[in-house]
Predict the structure.
Amino acid sequence: MRSLWRWVRITLLLATLAVGLSTNPSPSATRVVLPALAEGEFYSLIGDGYASRRSVHDEAIGVLDLHSGRELWRRDPGIGALQSLRIVDGVLIVSAMGYEDATHKILRSGTDQTIALNLRSGRELWRHKGALLSNMVGAILPIWCNGCSDDAVGVDARTGREIWRSPWLKTSNYFDGRSQWSIARDGTVRAVDLTTGSARLVGTLPKDYWIIGGSTRYILAVPPSLPGSGSVVYPGVGVFDSHDLRQIAYLNITNSARFPPDLWLCGDLICQRGLPDMKVYDLHGELRYAKAQFLLSTVIDRDDQQLIIGVQSRSGVVTPGVPMDTSQLVETATGHVVADIGVWRLVRVDADRIWVALFASRGPDTLIAAPWGSAQAETIFGYIDLRPGAPLAVTTLKPLGRAYEDCDFDYGWLLCGNAVTGIREVAIHVGVNFA
């Protein structure tokens, strides 16, 4: 009898473990096909294991648990046009701007609101006037009022409790990793610490100049746009010392206000993004070199060396079986190609890795000059190790199982889909042994 009871207990234990494994799959093996989207709807990654479901037709928000693919809740917060959506300290933070009238076509400045929602239920926790800044440090939310005279505040993400208040954080577009830089109308620049709200006087820029980029050494700022320039075109760019805003040089390089920006700081050089050619200048505006049909994607640092990641196009040159454009890593100082990774495409850059994907070809003129029938059957995900001593080559992870045309990657999750072939969006957790 005793041995029989022992066998029963072992059987019950194994059954319990089996149920646990089936209802709580290992995150490293998670691959979930998400619910079908209606016309105008889209998914976005908002945190580890969570995605939002939104539509271009209304302001409703749905939150999905990516481990199960189940929508947890869906509601319209009723605060206007959504501007920002993110998870902070386990709370969903939503910022929105109100409309001018009932047509919902024109936004009204000064109507921003930020609300906190329970991530699992959608229940409102708190709300505050103002919009959440795109940059933040820790779980302190910097909220400012765009178009009104109210002070900016830093609030606790969970409780909404005000931690600091600052009158200086008004017009802002540059973040140095800890402080948001704010430019007054007279050109005075202050750096507001986003953890304490304290402001540091940096210096003064020429009146009406606007910061477009910066580094630990330099700041790029543009003068007012040309009258009647339509798409907003700036007549040049000033280079300033980031410590005291002393002007170092002025480059007569016309650039537009689109994003990504035309001009990037590349160490002691300035890179002009491309379209059609990438050009690299020194701080005196002298052209160092140009790369024809090269489009800059981003700039990274590795082993005291700065590298440009971009796509080298070969439009007009069609050779069967040869890629028409390839991704390259280029030495910033010389333009020398240090690695050509072929048709792998940049997905995301982290501190120690470049994440890339080998997407399925959509047709003979996209990646490889080849018939549609020989296009790649499935998408492959991989990375380039940026740690010292590692070779600049792609390490291939397991294929993703289907032919996706696009993938987002954040919080350790891939969100992939293929609207061309009608493949439903799928969420894949990138673990050591993901399936």
About this structure: The chain is about 5% helix and 45% strand.
